[in-house]
Design a protein that fits this description.
The protein is of the alpha+beta class. The protein has two domains: 1-30; 37-152, Nucleic acid-binding proteins (OB fold (Dihydrolipoamide Acetyltransferase, E2P), Beta Barrel), CATH 2.40.50.140. The protein has two helices and six strands. A five-stranded mixed beta barrel has the order 1-2-3-5-4. It starts with a helix and ends in a 22-residue tail after the last strand.
Amino acid sequence: MKLNKLTGLLIFILVLGLTGPVLAQQRGGGGGAGKGPKAGRFYDLKTVTTVKGTVESLETLPSMGRRGGKGMKWQGLVLKTDKETINVHLGPVGYASEQGVEPKVGDTIEVTGSKITQNQETVLLAAEVKANDKILKLRDEQGRPLWRGWRCGGPGARK
């Protein structure tokens, strides 16, 4: 009887040891930040800052495949501040316009978000954008994207 319990325990530990890394990988453990939505997993509350500047250009960033929504394009912009020029990642293309806030080239805007380094450059993952007397909310207080479920009627869906 003791041998059966010991054998069962060893099998359990073996199975747990083999499946743990697989589960961690599925949850997004490991890997570096790529350009586009994958960077959203790297929102860091310790690096949240607010910058003000002029929109120099608008960008469409490529999809990152499975996690980023296959074929979905992402919106970004280049912001020139008094101190630097910084790439800002907003969210899926179309989300900002459906929220009624679309920064345009030449606009002076204020962006609050997490400043991270990816591919040796500074990127701001936007949580909130103030433009043209309107506020675009992109993330909640914990940095979670508000656009999750946007196209499917989820929390980010148009009301």
